[in-house]
Specification:
The chain is of the alpha/beta class and 300 residues long. It has helices at 19-24, 36-56, 76-86, 101-114, 126-129, 151-161, 176-183, 185-191, 201-222, 254-266, 272-276, 280-285, and strands at residues 66-70, 93-98, 119-123, 141-145, 166-170, 225-231, 242-248. It folds into two domains: 14-172, Rossmann fold; 176-223 and 252-294, no CATH class. It contains twelve helices and seven strands. Helix 3 links the parallel strand 1 and strand 2 (93-98). The longest helix is centred in the last third of the chain and has 22 residues, at 201-222. Bound molecules: S-adenosylmethionine (SAM). S-adenosylmethionine is lined by residues 70-73, 76-77, 97-100, 103, 125-127, 145-148, 151. S-adenosylmethionine binds at residues 70-73, 76-77, 97-100, 103, 125-127, 145-148, 151.
């Protein structure tokens, strides 16, 4: 009797990992193989996953985690998190927030097909998530991977409002700060030689990006988070590889709020305080917040 050939084993795959999902994400080819390109892609996915897994393992067992992914796109981050972490657990939910209806429909169908029944996808702008009654009052983790422009800021706002224990952010380019720098460039150049740092249009954009992420970190610290900034090594396909991880401590740093305001003033960005950093006033009025988070189990 001839035996059917055993399916090829791929050392990079983890036990129980969904082959169908990896094919859908084009990490595996249709015939279930890894090529050089997809091997690199898988390495990148694991690299980000290992940061997130460490944080998820810190959460109490038996409830959650509730993860809300802003600017989810095809939701490959959410799917990988579900497949590698949530699938084998009895609790937890991943919600993708995405403005493109066709991606929401596609992800919903894929989750159904794979039986990933604790995944949901909302056709919603990140800015509207904060007021959405569909999302739970507290969440464990907010992620935003290359969420366009100010969607990362909206994700932060959501995370602050819903007392996220962790935020994992890989920002995309943000145009708002650069536009402000551009608008006040002449005045800045007359005021300080440091304005040379953003005189040329390319530098305006780069400085805008750099300042944006610096302000985001200060804001998170001012609102009770400990922040680390690292490089998402191996993410060579994108220049946007800054990984910001924020962990909720409840210790709101007054000094960070003061620094944030000073940076805004120095760069002529004062008008952004009300627009982007609206929770500063609340943060400054309380030195620390040790409110214990409620269980964030929920169903959509
Ligand atoms: C560059 S893609 C990244 C997708 C995914 N996070 C990833 O890394 O593969 C950005 C996604 O964010 C979505 N998006 C842009 N602005 C958004 C907003 N304000 N709210 C929600 N989604 C948004 C876009 O439609 C797009 O699918």
């Amino acid at each position: 009797m001839t035996r059917a050939p055993a399916p090829p084993t791929i050392p990079e795959l983890r036990p129980g990992q969904s082959i169908e999902l990896l094919k859908e994400l084009h990490i595996l080819t249709r015939d279930g193989k890894l090529n050089q390109d997809s091997r690199r892609k898988l390495k990148q996915v694991y690299h980000l996953y290992q940061f997130i897994e460490k944080l998820l393992l810190e959460l109490p067992e038996g409830q959650g985690p509730t993860i809300v992914d802003h600017g989810a796109g095809k939701s490959y981050l959410g799917f990988i998190l579900y497949d590698l972490f949530l699938k084998s657990r009895a609790t937890g939910h991943v919600v993708g927030v995405e403005t493109r209806a066709e991606l929401v429909e596609r992800s919903t169908a894929l989750a159904q097909r794979l039986g990933f029944d604790r995944m949901s996808f909302l056709h919603l702008a990140a800015a509207d998530a904060v007021a959405s009654p569909v999302l739970p009052p507290t969440v464990d983790m907010v992620t935003a991977l290359h969420a366009c422009d100010t969607a990362t800021d909206d994700a932060i706002d959501f995370g602050l409002a819903r007392q996220a224990r962790f935020m994992v952010l890989v920002p995309c380019c943000q145009a708002e700060v650069a536009a402000c720098l551009r608008q006040h460039k002449a005045l800045s150049l007359s005021r300080t030689p440091l304005a040379e740092l953003w005189r040329h249009p390319l530098h305006t954009r780069e400085m805008g990006s750099q300042i944006t992420n610096v302000l985001r970190c200060l804001y998170l610290e001012a609102c009770g988070y400990q922040v680390t900034v690292t490089e998402l090594v191996g993410w060579e396909h994108s220049l946007k590889n800054e990984l910001i991880i924020a962990r909720r401590t409840g210790q709101k740093k007054r000094s960070a709020a003061e620094r944030l305001r000073a940076v805004l003033a120095e760069f002529g960005l004062g008008e952004l305080e009300g627009v982007r950093f609206g929770r500063l006033a609340v943060a400054a009025s309380v030195d620390s917040d040790t409110t214990e988070q409620q269980s964030s189990a929920f169903s959509l």
